C-alpha cells in the first residue's frame, strides 16, 4: 500500500461528552437546577481532532478504544452521521470488558467549562494499536494526551513517534495537562522526536517554569523541541520553528462553548501543513478554526465555511 496524501492518524482518548448548558453552580442537596440544553457529543482529543479534520477535507484514521456498550454505539452513530466512513473507523477497537469513557461538561454562560469524567476503554489503548498497515497509509500522526493513556509510558510513546518517522510521516503531539507527578518528565522525553509540539500557555508555563511565551518556547527548544506552537486562546497563538518565531492574533467571536477548541486548533494546523501551506497561513487557519469551534454548542459544528475564508 502507498501513503495517502490526506490520511491523518488521530491517536488518543475518545469519549462520549454529555454537554450541559448553561449552569453556573451545582444544585444543593435535594434541589433541582433547570438548564437550557443537554446534548451528547463526540469527545476526547482524538475524537475531536478527527471530526474537525474530516470537515477540512482530510481523511482521519481514528485510532482509539471504545467499550461494547450504549455509549460506544452512540459515538459510532455520531461518527457515521458526520461522514466518517468504515475506512476512517477501521482503526477503532471495541473492548468487551470495558465501558466507554464519558465526560459531563458543565458549560457556563461565557463558554467556560467544568468537567466530571469517568475513564473508560480508551485508557487501555496501547501503541500497538497504531499498526504498520495504518502507518503505511498515512501522511501524518497526531498523538495527544499521553497522561490519559496509562498503558503507554514515555519509552513506548517515543518509540511510536520514531517509528512513524521511519514511515516518512510528520508527527505532532498535544500535551494535555495532567496532575500526575510525571507529566512533565514524560513530555520532555518526547520533545526530540516530535515534529510539532502543541500546548497552551498554562501547560508551557508548567513545563518551563517561566512566564513569557518567547522564553517558554526557548526553553522547550533547548530541550530538543523542533517546532513549538503555543495556543493562546482569544489572543491567537505563538509559533517558533528553527527558522522563525511569530505571533498570529486570534479572531474575535462570541464564545458559546469552548469544548474542543484546542483540538480544533490542532486540526487546522495539521490540515494546513498536510495541504502544503506555509506555516503562517497554516497558523491563521488554526486560529480561525479554534475560534469558530467556540461559536456553537459541542464539538461537531463550526467549520463548515472554512474554504470561504481560506
The tally of helices reads: 11
CATH superfamily descriptor:
Ribokinase
Low-confidence stretches: none
Rounded radius of gyration (Å): 18 Å
Given helix and strand content, the structural type is alpha/beta
Remind me, CATH topology? UDP-N-acetylmuramoyl-L-alanine:D-glutamate ligase
Specify the helix fraction band. Answer: 25-40%
So what's the overall shape? globular
Beginning-to-end CA distance, first to last residue: 32 Å
Give me the side-by-side strand order of the main sheet: 4-1-9-10-11-12-13-14
Q: What composes the largest sheet? A: 8 strands, mixed
Give the percentage of residues in beta strands. Answer: 15-25%
**Whole-number mean pLDDT:** 90
Number of strands: 14
What is the count of structural domains? 1
Summarize the helix and strand pattern as letters.
Answer: EEEHEEHHEEEHEHEHEHHEEEHHH
What key phrases describe this protein's structure?
single chain, 310 residues, alpha/beta, UDP-N-acetylmuramoyl-L-alanine:D-glutamate ligase, 4-stranded mixed beta sheet, 14 strands, 23% strand, globular
Task: Explain the overall architecture.
It is a single chain. With 310 residues, this protein is of the alpha/beta class. It is built from 11 helices and 14 strands. Helix 1 (45-55) packs across helix 9.
Amino acid at each position: 500500500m502507498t501513503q495517502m496524501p490526506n490520511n491523518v492518524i488521530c491517536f488518543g482518548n475518545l469519549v462520549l461528552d454529555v454537554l450541559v448548558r448553561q449552569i453556573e453552580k451545582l444544585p444543593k442537596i435535594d434541589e433541582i437546577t433547570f438548564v437550557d440544553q443537554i446534548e451528547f457529543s463526540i469527545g476526547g482529543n482524538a475524537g475531536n481532532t478527527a471530526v474537525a479534520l474530516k470537515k477540512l477535507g482530510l481523511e482521519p484514521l481514528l485510532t482509539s478504544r471504545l467499550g461494547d456498550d450504549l455509549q460506544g454505539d452512540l459515538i459510532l452513530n455520531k461518527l457515521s452521521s458526520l461522514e466518517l466512513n468504515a475506512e476512517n473507523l477501521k482503526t477503532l477497537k471495541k473492548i468487551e470488558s470495558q465501558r466507554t469513557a464519558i465526560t459531563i461538561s458543565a458549560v457556563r454562560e461565557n463558554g467556560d467549562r467544568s468537567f466530571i469524567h469517568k475513564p473508560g476503554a480508551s485508557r487501555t489503548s496501547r501503541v500497538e494499536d497504531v499498526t504498520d498497515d495504518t502507518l503505511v497509509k498515512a501522511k501524518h500522526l497526531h498523538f495527544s494526551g499521553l497522561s490519559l493513556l496509562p498503558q503507554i509510558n514515555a519509552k513506548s510513546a517515543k518509540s511510536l513517534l520514531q517509528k512513524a518517522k521511519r514511515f516518512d510521516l510528520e508527527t505532532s503531539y498535544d500535551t494535555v495537562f495532567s496532575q500526575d507527578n510525571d507529566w512533565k518528565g514524560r513530555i520532555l522525553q518526547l520533545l526530540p522526536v516530535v515534529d510539532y509540539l502543541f500546548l497552551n500557555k498554562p501547560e508551557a508555563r508548567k513545563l518551563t517554569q517561566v512566564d513569557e511565551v518567547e522564553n517558554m518556547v526557548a526553553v522547550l527548544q533547548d530541550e530538543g523541541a523542533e517546532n513549538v506552537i503555543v495556543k493562546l486562546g482569544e489572543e491567537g497563538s505563538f509559533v517558533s520553528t528553527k527558522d522563525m518565531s511569530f505571533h498570529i492574533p486570534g479572531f474575535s467571536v462570541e464564545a458559546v462553548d469552548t469544548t474542543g477548541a484546542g483540538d480544533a486548533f490542532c486540526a487546522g494546523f495539521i490540515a494546513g501543513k498536510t495541504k502544503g501551506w506555509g506555516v503562517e497561513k497554516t497558523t491563521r487557519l488554526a486560529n480561525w478554526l479554534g475560534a469558530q469551534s467556540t461559536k456553537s454548542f459541542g464539538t461537531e459544528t463550526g467549520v463548515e465555511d472554512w474554504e470561504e475564508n481560506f
